[in-house]
Design a protein that fits this description.
The protein has helices at 42-47, 57-62, 66-73, 76-80, 92-98, 124-134, 152-171, 190-203, 219-229, 247-256, 265-268, 310-318, 322-348, 352-363; strands spanning 2-8, 11-18, 21-25, 27-29, 53-56, 86-89, 102-104, 109-112, 119-122, 138-140, 180-184, 207-210, 239-241, 260-262, 274-275, 282-283. The protein is of the alpha/beta class and 368 residues long. The strands form four sheets. The chain has an eight-stranded parallel beta sheet with strand order 4-14-13-12-11-10-6-5. The protein has a three-stranded antiparallel beta sheet with strand order 1-2-3. Helix 10 (247-256) links the parallel strand 13 (239-241) and strand 14 (260-262). The longest helix has 27 residues, at 322-348. The radius of gyration is 20 Å and the shape is globular. The model has no long low-confidence stretch (mean pLDDT 96). It binds the ligand CNc1nc2cc3c(=O)[nH]c(N)nc3c(CCO)c2[nH]1 and zinc ion. The site of ligand PK3 has 16 residues, from helix 5. Residues 89-90, 92-93, 140, 143, 145, 183, 211-215, 242-243, 262 line the site of the ligand CNc1nc2cc3c(=O)[nH]c(N)nc3c(CCO)c2[nH]1.
């Protein structure tokens, strides 16, 4: 499942093997919630060396349904014609963030579809059934992600439920056991997190994710927690920080020892005109770019930055041309993937700290 190739401080480089190929970490995973990374062709993703993408249990269960995906495509890979690894989240988090009518019971989560109001239950077993139908390479356990701020008692109660649900996931006969990641909860309390991780370890999940973060806590609280906790996680298991993040959050996560990341911001903010550049985020709507002949990021060698000017992309964006979203999304994903590739090389050369400082100083230079 995983080969650790080197450390640079607490940062590490690994190779994770899945049914659909290897993943070289640190890695940023583009989010393709409804079997599409918005504005991207699968060919674009191959071209930019995206190694693994995310799909989502909740969304795909509601539309078009995992049975259809299995029937038509033999699973998500065939359905969307993507032959590299896919990780699917287990659905609980999305129920809480998308369906305002939901109830949590020991059985699972009952909710009304945000699409047509129909009533549904997703239980640990149902989540496993859906992800099995999707044929994911990495399946996430069904968990509860508590809203922050929360008392320690509430966090413990939620963590206990997540652990009972995790056991039910492990006991579900997945086709290939070697693909299920447990999710550590416990808020920002190191003792809760350590207990949760130890009890998940007793169930021997092949990989572990850190859930319950990037949900409203202060950024420095998350970073402090990561620096204090991640290096205590099992060395020979993949470490996935869910829902993170912006470029600097990811570099902080890598520095703490995280291998895998996912975040919707590079694609979502792209559709709102935000370019990620080595000199910090740039919003193309800004009047200052009206006649700017430079590429969005002069230090980027992606096909967008080699072909189009800021002025042209600003024109596309301000006139509502669809091409704007395609171009900015392509660049942002390329930027995130290239950043993790550069970080991986810096780790293998044992110079990650220098890489981090250089990236951080330039990215926060506030050029615009
Ligand atoms: C954007 N922040 C974020 N925090 C998360 C936290 C969780 C979590 O605790 N559990 C699960 N299953 N998924 C999560 C996800 C969706 C994946 O990106 C999160 N996303
Ligand atoms: Zn570019």
């Amino acid at each position: 499942m995983i080969k650790v190739e080197g450390y640079s401080g607490k940062a590490r480089a690994t190779t994770i093997t899945t049914e659909h190929g290897e993943i070289k970490t640190p890695i940023f995973m583009p989010v393709g919630t409804r079997a599409s990374v918005k504005c991207m062709w699968q060919e674009d993703l191959y071209e930019m060396n995206a190694q693994i993408i995310l799909g989502n249990t909740y969304h795909l269960y509601l539309r078009p349904g995992h049975e259809l995906i299995e029937k038509v495509g033999g699973g998500l890979h065939g359905f969307m014609n993507w032959d590299k690894p896919i990780l699917t989240d287990s659905g609980g988090f999305q129920v809480f963030s998308l369906s305002d009518i939901n109830k949590i019971t020991e059985e699972g989560v009952t909710f009304s579809s945000h699409i047509d109001g129909s009533k549904h239950l997703i239980s640990p077993e149902k989540s496993m059934e859906i992800q099995k139908g999707l044929g994911s390479d990495i399946v996430m356990a069904f968990d509860e992600c508590p809203k922050l701020p929360a008392t320690k008692d509430t966090l413990r109660e939620s963590m206990e439920l997540t652990l009972r649900w995790a056991k039910r996931c492990i006991d579900y006969k997945l086709r290939d056991y070697q693909k299920l990641f447990g999710i550590v909860q416990g808020g920002l309390h190191k003792d809760l997190r350590t207990e949760c991780m130890q009890r998940l370890e007793e169930m021997d999940f092949p990989g572990l994710a850190l859930g319950g973060l990037s949900v409203g806590e202060k950024n420095e609280e998350m970073v402090d927690f990561l620096n204090d906790f991640v290096h205590t996680m099992p060395d020979q298991k993949p470490r996935y920080l869910m829902g993170v993040g912006k470029p600097l959050d990811i570099l902080n996560g890598i520095r703490a020892g995280i291998d895998m990341f996912d975040c919707v911001l590079p694609t979502r903010n792209a559709r709102n005109g935000q370019f990620l550049t080595h000199d910090g985020p740039l919003n193309i709507k800004n009047l200052r770019f009206r006649e700017d002949t430079l590429p969005a990021d002069p230090s980027c060698d992606c096909k967008v930055c080699k072909t189009y000017s800021r002025s042209y992309i600003r024109h596309l964006y301000t006139t509502g041309e669809f091409l704007a979203g395609n171009l900015i999304t392509y660049h942002n994903l390329y930027f995130m993937i290239k950043m993790t590739q550069d970080a991986r090389q810096a780790i293998l050369d044992d110079r990650f700290d220098d890489y981090y400082k250089e990236f951080y100083n330039r990215y926060t230079s506030r050029k615009w």
